[in-house]
Amino acid sequence: MKKESVSSEIGFSDSELVEYGKRSDRFTVELLAWNESSISIVFRDVIRILDNDANSISAFFKVSDSEFLKAALHRLYDGTVAENHSYVHYQLLDDDDIPALEVVCAQMSISYAS
After folding, report:
1. Strands 2-5 and 88-93
2. Nearest to residue 56, comparing CAs of 104, 21, 98?
3. Whether 19 contacts 97, CB under 8 Å
4. Residue-range domain boundaries for the chain
């Protein structure tokens, strides 16, 4: 499993989880950054979510070749996984660097507000 930090205008360290919710295949996470700015992360075409009691956020990663991703794809494709799928595993880590929220989706975007 390989992790790659998701780049952003504002760092995720010391962010507070304000709220999150899923509607259809869209999952939105709202954070309050260390500088009081709002960060909104929108995941689209979501096929798996895991909440490990998310509260505070220290980092945001894109994860390659994880068991979490493989399980989501296996379920989606009913055993035979397409090689050219567009799904990605993302992790939001808590202050102890433990995954707080995990999401598998096809698209992700980040927006900011002061």
Report:
1. unpaired
2. 98
3. no
4. 2-113
